[in-house]
Amino acid sequence: MNNDIERVLYSQDDIKAVCKRLGADITRDYAGKKPLFIGVLKGVIFFMTDLLRELDFLADIDFIDVSSYHGGTASTGEITLVHDIDVDISGRDVIIVEDILDTGRTLAYLRDRLSERHPKSLKVCTLLDKPEGRVVEAKADYVGFDVPNEFLVGYGLDYVEYYRNLPYVGVLKPEVYTN
């Protein structure tokens, strides 16, 4: 699996440092509050786990599962809700946690869907932000790394459900997904 990686963008140590930084920022901003963190499955599992370990306050978690890639290397533009959250977010401080912000379609969909439920506040934290991939306006409040417009895998990010378990974020060799 490591042989399929063109280059490593962010090592385990890089990711740990950014989780510490983001955790400190969120801890500062939410002091005295008990926000709900909503992780976007499946890619967020590693990041959300490591991020939450860096927080110094009580927090609640839930997960939502949406799909826009449907097994390919580019978003289809069609967002499918696979699993909704299980809790009422009305009047709550909510932080959406994403592995990567790319086209912006998924985030726009989630913001619209969750805003209808009247949270007190709605913020976004993403490990990776790929501004060159945007097709709709979308912005995260907390960003780990800005990344190039390349196909990334590892640390939760996948290609046809593989590579998620790599402990780093790397660029997948084009020959892997063009054959």
Question: Largest sheet, order of strands side by side?
Answer: 4-3-2-5-6-7
C-alpha geometry: globular
Number of strands: 9
Average of per-residue pLDDT values: 94
Number of domains: 1
What ranges have pLDDT less than 50 throughout 5 or more consecutive residues?
A: none
Largest sheet: 6 strands, mixed
Structural class: alpha/beta
Query: Radius of gyration, Cα only, in angstroms?
Result: 16 Å
Order of helices and strands: EHEHEEEHEEEEH
What does this structure look like?
There is one protein chain. With 179 residues, the protein is an alpha/beta fold. The protein has a single domain (12-149), classed as 3-Layer(aba) Sandwich (Rossmann fold), CATH 3.40.50. The protein contains four helices and nine strands, in the order βαβαβββαββββα. The protein has helices at residues 12-29, 45-52, 105-115, 174-178; strands at 5-10, 36-41, 60-67, 80-83, 93-101, 121-129, 142-146, 152-153, 169-172. The strands form two sheets. It has a six-stranded mixed β-sheet with strand order 4-3-2-5-6-7. Helix 1 (12-29) crosses helix 2. The protein is globular, with a radius of gyration of 16 Å. It starts with a strand and ends with a helix.
Short description:
With 179 residues, the protein is α/β, with parallel strands linked by helices. The chain contains 4 helices and 9 strands; from the N terminus they run βαβαβββαββββα.
